[in-house]
Amino acid sequence: MAVGTHTPTAPGAVRRPWFHRPRNKEALAALLFLAPNLIGFLVLTLGPGVFSLIMGFTNWSGISRARWVGAENYIELVADKVFLTALRNTLVYTVEFTPLVIVAALLFALLFNQRVWGVPVVRLLCFLPIVTDFISVAFIWSWIYHFRFGVLNWALELLNLPAQAWLGDVRWAMIALVVMSVWRWVGYYAIILLAGLQGIPSELKEAATIDGANGRQLFLRVTIPLLSPALFFVLIISISSSLAVFEQMYIMTRGGPRDSTISISMFLYQQGFRFFKMGYASAVAWILFLLTFMVTAFNWTIRRRWVYQE
To answer: What's the pLDDT tens digit per position in 170-185?
Structure first.
């Protein structure tokens, strides 16, 4: 048969629809399974994201007709003192929260990995804060930090130490929020690191011990390198969550005192839903997205220097 010629369909043969063919059936089934998530992504994530990007270049209240202003919102943000304060507060919160929660989670993970009586109960107690309603958690910690009736100041009085306005003092407000956030997230991150610890082959530890490694060398030269993928994952999600922090500030301090705890997300909320500057708030949202993206990209770039890869 000559190359390029088309074989005619046999007389009487019925040409099946494309969706009845085996390969197309598999593709159609896969598409149907993916359709709910795909539609949800397009409608609830990509669509609003593109809409927000466009609105960032407009003056829009959310109700009135949008007016195109170009890069005016972004130029105004550079000179907005409250936004710059919110940016600084968010970075300070991230720098304080991330190392504290990772170190605490690693210590708890090492504890959870021990075969000691009562460890399962401790695991449960440490994991409870993350599954507890955050509004309830915030109100409980507000009571703990209360100046007159708080448990913390009561304990300080027993030690003959002066009471502190933990949420009303510029010196202590951010630290108080960081401590509460570490308490809430440490159990969740510890469970992730525990999974990484339990995935380390015991043969490697035994071989290192036979070669004369002590406990410190075993931890630094074997455990930490093999645990580095889990540590990297915890680092990424802890930084991302801390850059987008909102609930703690909104419920416990309302951004005070004197804007010392206002975050970018809280500033975004105020601009959009208190002052009805939706275009301005959209610009803030994309600044936050770019900040998170750049930090994540930087960590992803340098991961090869310290993350163990098989």
So the answer is: 999 999 999 999 999 9
Per DSSP, the residues of 228-245 read HHHHHHHHHHHHHHHHT-
Q: How far is CA 130 from CA 87, 126, 142, 180, 250, in A?
A: 26, 8, 17, 12, 18
Query: Residues 123, 198: contact at Cβ < 8 Å?
Result: no
Q: With bands split at pLDDT 50, 70 and 90, how would you rate the model's confidence at 1?
A: very low
Structure tokens belonging to residue 85: 């304060």
pLDDT tens digits, 107-157: 999 988 887 777 788 888 888 888 888 888 998 999 999 998 899 999 999
Among all chains, which residue has been given the structure tokens 């915890």?
234
At residue 67, φ and ψ (nearest 5 deg) are: -120, 125
Strands (E), the chain: 58-59, 67-68
User: Taking a C-beta distance cutoff of 8 angstroms, is the pair 229, 300 a contact?
Assistant: no
Q: Vertex 144, ends 134 and 245: CA angle to 5°? A: 35
Spatial CB neighbours of 296, under 8 Å, sequence gap ≥ 6: 236, 239, 240
| Dihedral angle, C-alpha 97, 98, 102, 108, nearest 10 ° | 20
Q: How far apart are CA 288 and CA 296, in angstroms?
A: 12
Angstrom distance (rounded) from CA 93 to CA 174 = 7
CB atoms within 10 A of CB 16: 9
Residues 6+ apart with CB under 8 A from 242: 90, 93, 94, 97, 98, 181
